[in-house]
Amino acid sequence: MAAIRAAAPSHRGDALSARQRLVYVLVLGALTALGPFTIDLYLPAFPMLETELGVSASAVQLTLTGTMIGFGLGQLIVGPWSDKVGRKLPLILATLVHILACVGAAMASDIFVLGGFRLLQGFGAAAGGVVAMAMVRDLFGGKPLVKMLSRLALVNGLAPVLAPVIGSQLLLVTDWRGIFWVLAAYGAVVVLAVWLWIVETRPKADRALSAHSTVGARFKAVLSDRVFVGTAIVGGMVFTGLFAYLSASTFLFQQVHGFTPQEYGLLFGANSIGVIIGVQTSSRLIRTVIGPQWILAITTAMMAFLGIAIMVLDATGAGLWGTIIPLWFFITMCGFSFPCVQVIALNGHGQEAGTAASLLGATNFGLAGIISPLIGMLGVSTALPMGAVMTVTSLIAIAALWWIVRPRTVPALSA
User: HEC string of the chain?
Assistant: First the structure.
């Protein structure tokens, strides 16, 4: 893929052939999916874990929280490191940590050992999402960046909702330990693909020319950008709203509404259609019609309304359909939001793309990891706690968009 090194195009990725772009979409998409799969693939096994290990639902949810915290911390380390030493080395080493942690989780004897390995899994999987986004920013800018990020946003949005579908099917042939063996194999395939087909997108010359040569300088450049900070808060709140659903739904639909693991997986499959619609429609609108900040203005308002609708319908006894229908539209609005957040946050930070992507990811998973356990504490016998968290996070996103980002001040995307 020597074409990447060509100097004629304004961005390296402009010189890639259609076949080369497809390779990057597939491999970087697989990298992006590693984190969400690590976090969500075992969601359908939560009741099984609760029974086999003899622990409470909230204790099982804490293993999910540990994974997200590890994922957030890992991104804060791997992202800036990849700006300094290049993308491939941190990616390969961190993913190897993920593989070893998966093996450890598969052999865990109690909830505490499992929680420790889940933390390491999250840390190791962190490289996939942050480095994939940084690689895309290395290669593209402006509206071509929108197109490539939309592909990653689709994977990033689909993976959390498809993972439980796959996990529920795996439970037909294996137990929760088998899910971790599958994750270890997936990580091994990803490492091999990166080794064989992905070239370094941040060569030594670019690292030497960077205006921000130290980690502190790169963090300062990103965190002093008001638009980035506000967008990161918006993205974190949107993701936390989605994660409120992910962490509560396995108990709500299987234990309260009596779904089997496979029926639960089908529900997630139906919701994934909403993510596809949202991501693809949003990315097309960004490239042709409207700025991403204005799409966020609409989606965050809709999410607040839908969160309130879930609470009201649950309180008035609307039953299963009173939860499922507004929930589908809420998840669709999340799909609309994902590419907008990534484009606004990364477009102005080409020289410190790894640092910017790491802060964006750490905000997403850190906030979700801190806030989502509140649902377990409030109880999962009704949809009310889930709807309440969705509503509050949406209102915070609205405030951050209008008071910090300030949509009218966001620069237009270049062609």
Answer: CHHHHCCCCCCHHHHCCHHHHHHHHHHHHHHHHHHHHHHHCCHHHHHHHHHHHCCCHHHHHHHHHHHHHHHHHHHHHHHHHHHHHCCHHHHHHHHHHHHHHHHHHHCCCCHHHHHHHHHHHHHHHHHHHHHHHHHHHHHCCHHHHHHHHHHHHHHHHHHHHHHHHHHHHHCCCCCHHHHHHHHHHHHHHHHHHHHHHCCCCCCHHHHHHCCCCCHHHHHHHHHCCHHHHHHHHHHHHHHHHHHHHHHHHHHHHHHHCCCCHHHHHHHHHHHHHHHHHHHHHHHHHHHHCCCHHHHHHHHHHHHHHHHHHHHHHHHCCCHHHHHHHHHHHHHHHHHHHHHHHHHHHHCCCCCCHHHHHHHHHHHHHHHHHHHCHHHHHHCCCCCHHHHHHHHHHHHHHHHHHHHHHCHHHCCCCCC
Taking only the tens of pLDDT, the chain with its 415 residues reads 444 443 444 666 767 777 877 888 888 888 888 888 887 788 788 888 888 888 887 788 788 878 888 888 888 888 888 888 888 888 899 999 999 999 999 999 889 999 999 999 999 998 887 888 788 888 887 777 777 777 776 776 677 667 877 888 898 899 999 999 999 999 999 999 988 888 888 777 666 655 556 777 878 888 889 999 999 999 999 989 988 887 787 778 887 888 887 787 788 778 878 888 998 898 888 877 788 999 999 999 999 999 999 999 999 989 889 999 999 999 999 989 988 998 898 877 777 777 888 888 888 877 877 776 677 666 667 888 899 999 999 999 999 999 999 999 988 776 5
Q: Domains along the chain? A: 21-204+213-408 (1.20.1250.20)
